[in-house]
Amino acid sequence: MTGSEVAWFSALCDDDARQLGVSDPELLSSFGHCADIVTTAERNGFDNVLLPSGYELGIDAVAFAGAVAARTDRIRLLVAVRCGEMWPPQLARQLATLDHISGGRLAVNIISSDLPGTALESGPRYRRTAEVMSILKQLLAGHPIDHSGEFFTLAVDAPRIAREAAAARGGGPLPLYFGGLSEPAREVAAEHADVYLMWPDTLPEVEALVADLRRRAAAHDRVLRLGYRVHVIVRESESAARQAARDLMSALDIETGKAMRSRSLDSTSAGVGRQADLRHEAGADGFVEDHLWTGIGRARSGCGAAIVGDPDQVVAKLHQYEALGIDCFILSGYPHLEECDLVARHVLPRLRSQVVGDR
């Protein structure tokens, strides 16, 4: 069986639709709707679920995680937090409490974002992120900290709940997931992250990025896991999957797409720029290589491509990424509930029944 982690995505940032660009009140982020996605992902056998974080859009990921933890038993909760929006010791206390509530099922996705209403150049912003990650790792492992840095100066014991949560999981910090394509982002990942998350790209670019992150991590005597965040459109035939992709975008006009992309606080980042480049490199049908379709990026600034095809084609594509070193997939699709069922039916059994070496 493949050893890869396969996660789903709960649309906490108003990012759910039957047709992109068409608002559907039933699919706006709410506790009920997003909790349904999480419990469906658990029932369908996904290992983990990403709980994303925005500012203007949707609902708060940390508060949501505390509530949904009580509704789930097995699935891990990958909660996104935005660096600098909270004093790191208090954030550590919140996260340790979430880990306690979930029975040790928490993981943390660190976002190196600007604070709402402010702007910081990329270099110092990532230096701040590195400090936050370093502080969190020590406190969440239950260790006291005496830190004097560019952005934070503090000397504090780990909260009791952090010490107890660390002891319950056998010591060590909570796993930190982190993504970013710029030079400073890659360095932060290499030194501090446990899992580096990348957005969709062509196979040669993924291979190059994997090699680069492995080299950077080795320079810090560390080993990184590599993750891949991508949408999926899977149907029983390739023609049906492509038609579903066309239907998803059929109501989107250019101006609406621009407005949707601009709502994200990271709409000018290097990673977002690369997603735009993929759309420009794609053919008239939106495919930039076999089964990698960039149309979704017309309506969102972040992860902007989908694997599109029949079940065997989708699984084969995922196996290609595994062969390059990816061992964590965060998948999603529109609408998120329906596509979760389709991926669970058509992809998960095939993905988990095939040994990588048999390909």
Q: Care to describe what's here?
A:
This protein is an alpha/beta fold and 359 residues long. The chain has a single domain, classed as TIM Barrel (Alpha-Beta Barrel), CATH 3.20.20.30. The chain is built from 13 helices and 13 strands. It is globular and about 60 Å long. 46% of the residues are buried.
List the helices and strands and how they pair.
Elements: E1 5-9, H1 31-43, E2 48-51, H2 61-69, E3 76-82, H3 88-101, E4 106-111, H4 122-140, E5 145-148, E6 153-156, H5 160-168, E7 176-179, H6 183-192, E8 195-198, H7 203-219, E9 225-234, H8 238-249, H9 254-262, H10 270-281, E10 287-289, E11 292-293, E12 306-309, H11 311-324, E13 328-332, H12 336-346, H13 348-353
Parallel strand pairs: 1-2, 1-13, 2-3, 3-4, 4-7, 7-8, 8-9, 9-12, 9-13
Antiparallel strand pairs: 5-6, 10-11, 11-12
Helix pairs in contact: 1-12, 2-3, 3-4, 3-5, 4-6, 6-7
